[in-house]
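OP here, attaching both records as promised.
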Amino acid sequence: MNFDFLYNGTTAMIIDDLGRDHVIDLNLINYYIAEEKYTVKVEGMENYFTEHLPNTVHCYVSPKDAPSFPEHLDPMDVKIVCIKGTKTLKVRGEDVILSEGESVFIPANTPHQATNLYDSIILSVGYERTVDLSENYRNL
């Protein structure tokens, strides 16, 4: 796959074995992807994936069994969109499997973690909350 679209991002990082992110030079994206050891995160992709504007878009390229962030909460609603491969994650302790073209909506402050059981490329779309929608997502 050609990953040149990632150069449209503003900041690139890798996620290490302890779940910490480290900024890398955008010019090293292909090197780290080819290494197939770490998840590569590219922020600032909203100007490439314009269908998600005005929201933030981060792209994650994760090889099978790559490290991920520990379980965490995001302060905003997030939609995870699988654009290639199969994405596995836990949301509130439940396993979620996304195939190419599928997505899951994760309300703000919901515990979640990528588990990376397969190779995947996903978008994480962050929605700034302008109204309290928590009542609508109580059963997720």
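Record two, same layout:
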Amino acid sequence: MGNAASSFTMKIGSGLGTAALGWILAAGNFDAAPEGAAAAAALDGYPMTKKGRAHEALVEAATPSFWGGILGVLALMFLAPPLAKFAFNFGPQERFMMAIFGLTIIASLSAKNILKGLMMGALGLLLACIGMDPVLGKARFAFGSTFMAGGINMIPAVIGLFSLSQVFTTLKNPISRADGKGFGKITSSGISLKDLCRYPIGYIRSSVVGIIIGIIPGTGGDVSSYLAYQMGKMMSKHPEEYGNGSREGVGCCQAASSSCTGGTLIPTLTLGVPGNATAAVLLSGLTIHGLTPGYALFTSNQSTTYPFILALFIATFLTLFVGLAGAKYFAKVTLIPKEILSGAVLMLSVMGSYAIRSKPQDVIVMIAFGVVGYILKCYKYDVVPIVLGLILGPIAEQGLSQMLILNKNSLNASLLSLFGRPICIALMVLSAASIIYPLWTNRKEAKKAKEIQEVEED
């Protein structure tokens, strides 16, 4: 797809070409394929759907995406040079601590059974070790397979853990038509002005997280969604609703994921450092037209740059329109009979896994993760920590490896270097709060439940 996009831009000229790339990039940001960012939103989106609030969940997925996209593009227009300079403050230490902070979300997601959550997080970290060593360049756990030497691709793994495992879970029960009792209530609900900005503080906070994470190459929407979700839960007036169908939780994930696009483009356009594969496609398109990333893109070549940014703006508005107008109809998927829906999901899962790299091995990976996910769900294990481990494991490992190299393989010196960097200290505080807060909340709820039980007994 990247080659096709680049060839297309070469034929239609630089101005329209970069605008077309803007549309392609915006469309990729709202891709329906299951990935880490979508999995974060599903933490509350799926419980909302089970409660008959599918329409509400889809509306909340559309509006924060709009605001996050707008703020991300505004950051790209006005804050690109200073934010790109700020990104240089993120060295190996900051990357390592950012990954650690992300992993502390496991404590929040698995507050009811932290041991199980830690086990699944450790499994995800172990699976993330499969592939090439980032420092030595040697294959690990590949067992002589060149495919395994390339590591586990994230998207087939996520499709297997969430989509395919759900198909197995659905087919385990007797085939019956989906329950639509709560759906009639959904279809009659309208969209009010409040729906367009229901949680403004949460949207802004999550968008800022997405922009900052986006300007750090190698992170992206997956990391920003989970971090924004955790921060939203810590600062919410109703944290107990998170994971049980919180509309605010869906909004935090979507705002961060969308704003991350603008953040990703900042180092791409100012420094020539693509933040992800999609940004690399954009960079190749600029190179085709003889454009060099840097300050000149926003001055002497502004006739090329600003049509691209304008295309992002227009695509963001269109996404909002399609999301709101179609939410009522998209929600009707809950009325499809289980046997048809499961077959469709299975077919799309196979097609999506194969289409990524056109490798049948990715389909095998998807099926393997689907079976594992199904077994874990049967024994009440949460699969989300596995995804967190897969996403954040390589970032933490690379940061730690670079720290050790910089400190001559001294672990003590590497750990001490964390305390001399303000950003690392801030991330340490957030990590500690992320671990302590769910434990304190659980203890408080247990104490309250005990008091209520004593009153009832009296």
